[in-house]
Amino acid sequence: MSAYNADLALKQDDRPKPQDRMTVDEYRAAVGAPPKRQPVARIAMPEPTAQDMVAMAAATWPGVEKLTIELPTPPSLNNAYENTGGNGRRKSKKLIAFYAEATAALSQIGQRLDAETYRAHIVVTRTSPLADIDGKAKFILDVLHKCGLTVDDKHCEKVVIEWRYMHPPGATVMLSRYRKRRAA
């Protein structure tokens, strides 16, 4: 029988009175338990990143239906992450540098794409004959979303990506609102 039920089994007069009961701190002291831990002060919000700052600014920028942006060349998907020796993967220095340079470039745009769904045409300068083209689009669309210029890239309905030659390194991104055609 639990202590609470044992108290209820007693007659009303024999039950312990509230003033006779121990507080939690008195009980801990009586049984030699350590004092109750004090709550640890926690930071409510982490420090905003550069991308968060650009996203907050972008929320106030006017929305447009078409937007053209110049960005640095993103790393290939093969060079974007490093193994941590059994503890998973982390972003490579190349990817971190790309995000920093792209965020700095996007902070100067002053406009954002106003669309629920959109399409992207990406033209990237080919810097190596061995580079893959398909991995480049991911980092470009991710940084555009993280900086608040577009909605999440899951709403990107169409992506066209192509190489350009004889041009300085970088990428040109042309975004436009995408309206789906309705079936008749």
Describe this structure in words.
- It is a single chain.
- With 184 residues, this protein is α/β, with parallel strands linked by helices.
- It has a domain at 50-177: 2-Layer Sandwich (60s Ribosomal Protein L30, Chain: A).
- The protein is 28% helix and 22% strand.
- It has five helices and eight strands.
- A four-stranded mixed β-sheet has the order 2-8-6-7. Strands 1-5 form a two-stranded parallel sheet. It has a two-stranded antiparallel ribbon with strand order 3-4.
- β3 (81-83) and β4 form a beta hairpin.
- The protein starts with a helix and ends in a 7-residue tail after the last strand.
Kindly summarize this structure in a few lines:
With 184 residues, the chain is of the alpha/beta class.
Keywords:
single chain, 184 residues, alpha/beta, 60s Ribosomal Protein L30, Chain: A, 4-stranded mixed sheet, 8 strands
**Helical percent range?**
25-40%
- The whole-angstrom Rg is 29 Å
Q: Structural class of the helix and strand makeup?
A: alpha/beta
Order of helices and strands: HHHEEEEHEEHEE
Mean pLDDT: 86
Measured distance between first and last alpha carbons: 73 Å
What proportion of the residues form beta strands (DSSP E)?
15-25%
CATH architecture of the domain at 50-177: 2-Layer Sandwich
Biggest β-sheet description = 4 strands, mixed
Q: Which regions are unreliable across 5 or more consecutive residues at pLDDT < 50?
A: none
Classified in CATH, the superfamily of the domain at 50-177 is Holliday junction resolvase RusA
CATH fold name of the domain at 50-177, please? 60s Ribosomal Protein L30, Chain: A
Topology, number of strands = 8
Number of helices: 5
- Shape descriptor reads elongated
> What CATH first level of the domain at 50-177 would be assigned?
Alpha Beta
